[in-house]
Structures
1.
Amino acid sequence: MGNSKSETSRQINNAAAPGTEPRYAAGCTVSVIIPTKNRPRDLSLVVQSLFEQTVRVSEVVIVDQSESDEGRMLVQSQFDESSRSGSSDVELRYIQDQSISGGAEARNYAMQIATGEIWLFLDDDVYLEPDFVERLLGAYDADPEATGVSGIITNYSAPAWSFRLWSGLFERGSFRDERQPIYWNADRLRNSKAIRVQRFGGGLMSFRADAIRGLRFDENLRGVCDGEDVDFCMQMKPRNPRLLIAPGARLIHNQSPSGRLQDHWVRRQSRASVFLYNKHWRRGIKDRLCFFWLLTGYAAVVSFSSLRRASLDPWRAFCEGVREGLVAR
């Protein structure tokens, strides 16, 4: 499709059993928003998992930044195949535009055309369990005050004890990520009640559309950039959002290597930390102390890695991450 914007609408079925009525939260309609770039096979899998859901979504909005039409053709084929089965009532909106740069801009574009009452943001390399949408909507039913509901990633194993020790020591205050321990305990928490959190992961978060209408993902974050999901949640703070993780809404994150940084992990984390600190968490002496303590932790990690590898590449990755974080603010 080149650089031109195109939109294709098609009615599809979600493969629910014949005669099964969808069990929506108070009759809410759901728009699924998926930004994608150069991951046609991964995109096809997430669409397949949407077909397998026990409740139907209203529409799927895909914003594709790829150079080729392979993703569009695969998805269109899936939708055509489902349409031939007869009972189809979910709309596909497929936008392909190479001039869109990054997940933030793609999500903003999708929010302009999404029509559902709940917007579900998914990464293009996830695979949903069949009752994911049903469990998500069930959490809204159970808590009518919920502003947003996220699910749980089931294939994130607890990291090595050394990383957990480092994290517990250096990630303090706003920089402590409350989501990861929930993911690490996915099996134990399967039947737990929804857990209130302060932030979501961008690959599996949903919101009531009316609660976030008018907000935008920060387009200063170009390409693939950690932190855009946390930044979006932080923008909601004045509205006093009630954000929940529903452990029963489960998916696998396949973490496609396409489009990801391949150097030291500190680059991604330091970039996000610097960006978020400058935009949201630079409010007082406590925030400053937590931030500089975290930078000390990063410096310790890359110093050890550089000595072990006999290379300055980890230090270069750290410095590049800090620079990118400063540029993005």
2.
Amino acid sequence: MPELLIATNNPGKVAEFQRLLGDCGWKLMTAGALGIELSPEEPGETYAENARLKALEGARLSGLVTLADDSGLEIEALEGAPGPRSARFLGEDAGFDERFARILADMEGLESARRWARFRCLIAIALPDSEDARLCEGEVGGMIALEPRGGGGFGYDPLFYLPQRAATMAELPERVKDIVSHRGQAAMQARWLLMQMLYERKGADDDAA
């Protein structure tokens, strides 16, 4: 079974990708299992740029097909913040409780109609001998809750309320989150790309034989 590096230092993302892609024909590998160290820096100005840079770095270091993502929370009332800086909002060392408190303070008193937000995710898949990556995108709309709720998920999930589900992302069962989330939608596209790559590999092997 061919190996696929999941290029992230975030254990929550690793767990999600294991659920989302674990049965797609690739053996999912982590940087730790391979003994490589991924840069924590995300110098890009967009999700696509960051995802592409991380995928290319992972492919170069590991020699494997590599998948990486960049995602973030965009709040309409805050002019799209924290956006691509979501993981570094208020600084690298800030905890999510601190980030939640800041967002809620900045939005204090806003009625429901002004609490709209969205999660976005860009997934990049890079080959070890390539200088570019293929991209997949997903997004989900919702609202900023009045307070954090739920013990599931990670990151901003407890603050992201889905009116159609009457729950925050952190309150959803994993099987439901994997269908409706921004990362789940992007991963569904990535599954097709990965399956296509397996088909192309098989065809190349058959031709060589």
3.
Amino acid sequence: MMGLSLMLLISGSTTPTVQQVVEKAFHYARLNPENVRDWSKKARKAPYLPRFQFTFDRRLKNNINLNVADQVSVNSTGVTVGPPEQTQIQNADNDMNFEVKAVWFLDQLLYSKDDLEISAEARELAQERERILNQIRQNYFKRERLAQEVALLKKSHAPNLDQNLKQIEMADATAVLDGLTGGWFSDQLRGGL
């Protein structure tokens, strides 16, 4: 069973071009250069939108004022200490303040640290694209070379062991290309099933 699927992959005449493989691999890894351009456009529009700040403040105050006044009266009947007069005042204040601010950072229109971060990310993405491109280049052309070798071995009626070893190497290169394209490469070899 493995031999049949391996032969299908080897003899498939619908081998995609290396450029198609690169495009699919970049798309699968989400490394399209358009992403960086979109980030940059969005970063340029960001200063036009305000940043909202919300604050909440709650204060509790409890004031107690106690006034005691004794009345002393001296008259012909004697000295009288009168009923004490007492006043008690209690104030409880519960203050809650809400504040909403809209703040624009218009200096970001001229220079934004987001531009530096996007630039650094773009460099990292370019390095990753280069790494993927090298893997594709190595495995794609290795696979092409091996396919030609297998075809020559079949024509010359070489021993099956030699053919099988070349087919295993070819399957390895195909697996790497599948890993980089999310299985798209093998689908194309099978005729886009």
